[in-house]
């Protein structure tokens, strides 16, 4: 396991990562949460980010998706610099964020939430039916409660809807913020299964922030640990399988 922030993967030269952030400075009201923070997400990789509450994990995901401004540093997608990331530009580039807390509107039916999703990501009308069919193939359980209001659904069902909405843009990269929150362990496993299957099939890149480390590690290729805005450890899931190792970090 490495204590330094960069794990040097054996990569072919010219083989750019899907996403690379270098020396990021990001914060709120002039106070940095991340300072000189660098991270790389490879093609066809699930990277799990763990760490204490308040370590800056959600802040990182939001910055990578353009929801909060990057004050310093660079962000590149497949080797190309992104001058000013915005949610719209990042979504067009193939990235989707599934925020913490699901973010579904309780008064809307699942069908309405999906229509809103199409509107938000600008999917042409002619493509919408095929995309919806595809999402239903990936997450078939959604069909069962498609006409129900989101507020009447269980936590796990709402999480499915949130993921389904993110998939409407057929992203190449998912940023998942604590998908296990409020879910029983079995429901979380039910959610992770389709995510990993989809990732493998489409060779997607996934950055998952998760407190349920045990389950998240099962679907991860690489693990990073954050503390107070800094990367303190990096390794493979096997290297973190030992619980005592994790306890030392927390
Ligand atoms: N909108 C905001 N305005 C001001 N400060 C914020 C805001 N959002 C987060 N912070 C602060 O930034 C720091 C990092 O928060 P962040 O949510 O990124 O941590 P986290 O690692 O995702 O934690 P958790 O596991 O609790 O979600 C915390 O000190 C938090 O209080």
From TrEMBL:
InterPro entries: AAA+_ATPase, ABC_transporter-like_ATP-bd, ABC_transporter-like_CS, BCAA_Transport_ATP-bd_LivF, P-loop_NTPase. SUPFAM superfamilies: P-loop containing nucleoside triphosphate hydrolases. Keywords: Amino-acid transport, ATP-binding, Cell membrane, Membrane, Nucleotide-binding, Transport. GO terms for biological process: L-amino acid transport. The keyword Lyase does not apply. Belongs to the ABC transporter superfamily. This is Branched-chain amino acid transport system ATP-binding protein. It comes from Jezberella montanilacus.
């Amino acid at each position: 396991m490495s204590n330094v922030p960069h794990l040097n993967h054996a990569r072919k030269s010219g083989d750019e990562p899907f996403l690379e952030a270098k020396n990021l400075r990001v914060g709120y009201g002039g106070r940095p949460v991340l300072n000189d923070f660098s991270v790389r997400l490879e093609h066809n990789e699930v990277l799990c980010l763990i760490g204490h509450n308040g370590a800056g994990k959600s802040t990182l995901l939001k910055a990578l998706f353009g929801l909060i401004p990057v004050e310093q540093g660079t962000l590149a997608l497949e080797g190309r610099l992104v001058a000013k990331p915005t949610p719209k530009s990042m979504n067009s580039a193939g990235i989707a964020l599934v925020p913490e807390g699901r973010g579904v509107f309780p008064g809307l039916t699942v069908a309405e939430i999906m229509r809103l999703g199409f509107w938000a990501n600008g999917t042409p009308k002619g493509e919408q039916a095929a995309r919806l069919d595809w999402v239903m193939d990936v997450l078939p359980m959604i069909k069962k409660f498609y006409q129900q209001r989101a507020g009447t659904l269980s936590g796990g069902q709402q999480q499915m809807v949130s993921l389904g909405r993110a998939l409407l843009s057929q992203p190449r990269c998912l940023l998942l913020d604590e998908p296990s929150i409020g879910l029983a362990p079995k429901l979380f496993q039910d959610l992770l299964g389709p995510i990993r299957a989809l990732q493998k099939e489409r060779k997607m890149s996934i950055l998952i922030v998760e407190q349920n480390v045990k389950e998240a590690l099962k679907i991860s290729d690489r693990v990073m640990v954050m503390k107070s805005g800094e990367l303190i450890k990096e390794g493979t899931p096997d290297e973190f399988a030992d619980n005592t190792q994790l306890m030392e970090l927390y």
